[in-house]
Write a structure and sequence with these properties.
7 strands, alpha/beta, 5-stranded mixed sheet, 2 helices
Length: 107
């Protein structure tokens, strides 16, 4: 994975695309913060997005929070396929920092 602070929407089917700052996703954590303690947005090589969430409890995203994540992502990344994945943890970088956005390198 390539560290990034932006998710770049470049799929031809949704127009020219535009980079989106990873900071916009921090707002989502503020809204779902009672449910999730951490998140990471991963843009795959196929331009789909995986929204990884670390919940405080349980192993599923409640419907309300899933809708918030999907609606918010659709607002900033229109037309991009999104998957929400619950994970136990999101590893820190070698420098011990959180990496809120990861963009996979092209093959």
């Amino acid at each position: 994975p390539w560290p990034s602070r932006r998710v770049s929407v470049t799929r031809p089917s949704i127009g020219q695309g535009r980079p989106v700052s990873g900071l916009v996703f921090n707002i989502v954590l503020g809204v779902i913060g009672g449910f999730a303690r951490a998140f990471q947005v991963v843009q795959r090589r196929d331009h789909s997005v995986v929204f990884k969430v670390v919940p405080f409890q349980g192993d599923a995203v409640p419907p309300r929070e899933a809708k918030i994540i999907r609606d918010y992502t659709e607002k900033y990344l229109p037309g991009v396929p999104i998957t929400i994945e619950v994970v136990r943890e999101i590893p820190l970088t070698a420098a011990g920092k959180r990496q809120p956005v990861v963009v996979e390198r092209p093959a």
